[in-house]
Amino acid sequence: MNKLSMDPTPRLVNGSSAAPATLLLAHGAGAAMDSPFMTAMASGLAEVGWRVVRFEFSYMAKQRISGKRSPPDRMPKLKQVFLEQVESEAALRPVIIGGKSMGGRVASLLADELSAKMNVLGCICLGYPFHPLGKPQQLRTEHLAVQKTPTLILQGERDGMGRQDEVETYTLSPMVSLQWMPAGDHSFKPTRNSGLTETENWTAAVTHSSNFCKRLLSS
């Protein structure tokens, strides 16, 4: 099931309301909640038994209507929209928050606060933007060094916002686990000579995410 919500914040819902937990996923800076990547993650996770809710930040919802590209909202507004979505879901069942790139970053910044006061079990980052493209010195890892909430980061080995050889030098909390997508870029697309396909890496990402959620529920 893929149901579009008509709430002020646009949402897409996949999976059964009887699922043991909801994965609340936000999109990245440049692509909407119904991008091929987000659709593959949501549908794949729903197929293996999870309820998945995708939502759009204000700037992307406006962009969908106007057709004109605009920069992301500032972080306080992004966090507020995410928080409102968590509040609407956490009263119903356990929630795992996360998202693609910027969406995952926002989730990771909120994770400790929300896990302390709401039914939020963990965080999944699908391609974390460890630094802006071409600016490896501008790290976005300060909070990840002290993260208390179980956090899974799925990262392409050749991600331009954090390659494996770069990320392995960073100081990250023991609560942050990394799973490398072979030969993958920021959206896990592998090189042609790797022998892998984009679909295979996306399927693997669904499997890793689902297994992480199962561990959260069983702990």
From TrEMBL:
Q: Which InterPro entries match?
A: AB_hydrolase_fold (IPR029058), KANL3/Tex30_Abhydrolase (IPR046879), NSL3/Tex30 (IPR026555)
Q: Where is the KANL3/Tex30 alpha/beta hydrolase-like domain?
A: 21-213
Q: What are the TM regions of this chain, as residue ranges? A: none
Q: Which Pfam families match?
A: Abhydrolase_11
The lineage's top-level taxon is Bacteria
The entry's protein name is Esterase/lipase/thioesterase family active site
- Species in which this protein is naturally found: Prochlorococcus marinus (strain MIT 9313)
Lineage of the source organism? Bacteria, Bacillati, Cyanobacteriota, Cyanophyceae, Synechococcales
